[in-house]
Write a structure and sequence with these properties.
Largest sheet: 7 strands, antiparallel
Strand content: 25-35%
Bound molecules: flavin mononucleotide
Number of domains: 1
CATH topology: Pnp Oxidase, Chain A
CATH class: Mainly Beta
CATH superfamily: Electron Transport, Fmn-binding Protein, Chain A
Order of helices and strands: HEEEEEHEHHEEEEEEHEE
């Protein structure tokens, strides 16, 4: 099939877009309002977007509590959502009022950031502490009526890693077993059973690709 997604229709029961752009990492975003009320919510329109300096982004459909808090206080955290933490991650997405602290709602212990005043999930194997940079309102967004999509960017100023997940100097993502978001109500888990390593490709003297070997442990 092939369809015009601006003026046409897919004709399917549900929009396949998010099932195509998958898997997506889950940005489990911790924040705190000026009021002091804490907040935790998952966002799968999330990713790392720059390395030096580290930047992450997530996008919110409407001005949700996370957006309100972050624009108010200028800080937030990311906690790595893992297979073990699925119920808490999912629970923290419940349509809870601003007054409800999702750490309490889901019985999740939290840690106060070391570098920013926002909480992250104590049991997460890794967390990022972020300073808010800016929001980009996607065309069509209308803050007056709270409609539209808002993309929050943050600079990572601190990183937490549970030492248990460092193996031979490398963050062992397969051991952490991160959740990934697929389309519809589908999820996946990254583990040893579905990961592999390869070196970057090299060319021979004639410009042809050489056989690509298993990763030799040197990150290029
Ligand atoms: C795995 C998962 C991913 C989600 N991704 C998004 C997203 O990218 N954008 C969004 O607006 N809502 C997303 N949601 C819904 C929010 O988590 C939900 O609306 C939540 O209540 C927002 O919380 P807040 O108002 O405390 O920020 C997602 C929910 C789940 C379970």
């Amino acid at each position: 099939m092939h369809y015009d997604c601006v003026n046409g229709s897919h004709g399917l029961p549900y929009d396949p877009f998010k099932a195509i752009v998958a898997p997506r990492p889950i940005g489990w975003i911790g924040s705190k309002g000026k009021s002091g009320i804490q907040n935790l919510a998952p966002y799968s329109y999330f990713n790392a977007v720059a390395d030096k300096p580290h930047f992450v982004m997530f996008s919110s459909v409407g001005i949700k509590d996370s957006v309100k808090n972050i624009e108010e206080t200028g800080v937030f955290t990311f906690s790595l959502a893992t297979e073990k933490l699925f119920d808490a991650m999912n629970g923290s997405s419940a349509p809870a009022n601003y007054e409800i602290d999702e750490f309490k709602l889901t019985n999740l212990p939290y840690v106060k950031g070391k570098f920013v005043d926002a909480p992250y999930v104590k049991e997460s194997p890794a967390a990022l502490e972020c300073e808010y940079w800016k929001t980009i309102d996607i065309p069509g967004a209308d803050r007056e009526v709270g409609k539209g999509t808002y993309v929050i960017f943050g600079k990572v100023v601190g990183v937490y890693i549970d030492d248990e997940f460092i193996t031979d100097g490398v963050f062992n993502a397969s051991k952490a077993r991160p959740l990934v978001r697929l389309g519809y109500m589908n999820y996946g888990v990254v583990g040893e059973e579905n990961t592999f390593t390869k070196n970057r490709p090299q060319l021979d003297e004639n410009g042809n690709l050489l056989e690509v070997k298993e990763w030799d442990g040197v990150y290029r």
